[in-house]
Model the fold of this input.
Amino acid sequence: MSDAIKTTALGRFGGALAKVLSYFVMILFSVMTIYPIFWLIMNSFKPTREFQVSQLGFPLAPTIKNYLGPYGAWKLGDFSELIPNSLIYTLGATAGIIILSVLAGFAFAKIPRKATAPIYASFVIGLLLSVQSLLIPLFLEVNILGIYNTRFAVLLVYIGAGLPLGIYLATEYIKGIPTSLVESARIDGAPYLRIFRSIILPMTLPVATTLAILNITGIWNEFALINILVSKTNLKSLPLGMYRFSGSLSSDWGKQFAALTIGTLPMLLFYFVFRRQITQGVSAGAVKG
Amino acid sequence: MARKKRMGREEGHAYWMMVLPAVIVYLLVIGFPIVLSVVLSLSDYNGGKMFGGEAWNLTGFGKYANLVADPLFWNALKNNLYIVLISVFGQLPLGFIFAYIIYRKTVKWPNFWQGILYVPNIISVIVVGILWSTIFSPNGPLGEAINSLRIAAYHAKIATLFSGSATFAVSDDLVKRILDFVGPKAAGIFGNPAADLKDFLSGYGPSQLQQVITDLTNMFVQKWSPTFLGKPDIAMLPILFVILWLYTGLYMIIFLANMQKIDVQVIESARIDGANEGQVGRYIVLPAITGTLVNSAILCIAGSLSSFSLIWAMTGGGPDHVTEILTIYMFNRAFLGRPDFPLANAIALVIVVVSFILIGITKAVEKKFGGKE
Done:
């Protein structure tokens, strides 16, 4: 150790102060993050009458009545229909985004065509647009096409909304794959579709994982778009179902909290298992602009 | 030669096979709605079948004139700008500080803090919105927590009036001390405070001291009930707080990932040359992630302008439209009461234009203040 970094008494005090402050801020924010969610789950095990008297205490006699039974949140909120729907939308749209993005990304990155520049640019501009600002024209379009209240419309809109980021990430990733791989296969006379299937596709697993991570959480929790695309209960997703509990059912706190807990737990579990991948995917997907 | 020609044809064929599916979906979901909103915002179309139904005509820019004349539009735009400001000047600096603390190992367990602070981002904003509107509601847990502190403090003060003995005797002096302490509130409860309070106290036995103190506390303590979300002039504050709470962790993760790309040796040698922690942050880490900061600001702005669900779940745009943002204003114009689809489409275009303007400003600022990576 050189003399220069020998800390003076003042420096050491400053360092200790910074440490204490840092821990304080971190702990404060962590408590602010975790406590409300803990509070929500805790109160879902309290009868509504007890909640009205004591909102902060632990449940005196924890009960699962808010969840089960003919008037429990599970039945009342039609969760047995919402969860399969959410799965269909999330997995279907995510798969669609990945397939379309990787296909187009390969063409943009490895097949030299004049059309690439304008088409690719139009997708990249889409990164700055958010489909949510187009709620009303989308609603009208879906009605013109006669696909209001269909799963097809939901999947179509979710895939379209995910394409700009998907195509951007896939294209940039595939650009990094050595062109010589494609060229030597071309010299051997291989058609592009076969090159795609046997060479490119297996190599795009990392970017496909990133896209899956980004889209799964996003679509699972999406509300604004599906809210204008479907109105039938048997087509609704979890966020739409949970939103019902903020209206006419909101005075029954116990059931509302149970419903919100049911809707939150699957994602919490997903996060718990894939935390590392999610964190990496999010920072990889933030290269907008 | 024939082979080359065949392969050239195959190339074009394969290209379009791979590109067209994405292009068609993109046109349907983004392209066509934009064209539709341009056309409809200039028309008098108002519901019903668009083709083959009641005839509608292009009528010009009247709807845009209506829009700028509507105070609700400016209110919604103002709220959107508040959200942009709290995002750019709240989330980004806080996210940077958190990331820096973790990056410089000022705190232990980096994965733990990261893992926790990101949690709000994986929960549906519908849940977040309902949860926080419950917390901020007049009879919610925030009120309960504050009131239990107030009651405890008030209880302790009342107890001192009884001069510490285990029993009590009603006296004019005691009544006067209590009335002095509780102030004008007594007049709201008793018609003749001095006499009525003495009567009231006489109802207790000498050994019921604790009971008297508790009852007096409940009678006179000023209860507080949070009315943030109901008061027009401050209803946006809780919303801005929740937005800060929600996304700070996201930017922390993004910044941290980019800080970890910095060459550690640069920082080590700067430290050896005597640079302090603040200088390292200011002159090494901050410049290294300027590009990321600008990209994040763009992400923030685009997200802020199109946000809908959080406020929809927290306040629905109320009370009386004060917390409306452009997307909710647009939604209400189209679906609430008499639908005005041309106006709603004009709003959609305004949102698109405003976000491009703000992003342009961000890029200009980056250029001016040198965003060298």
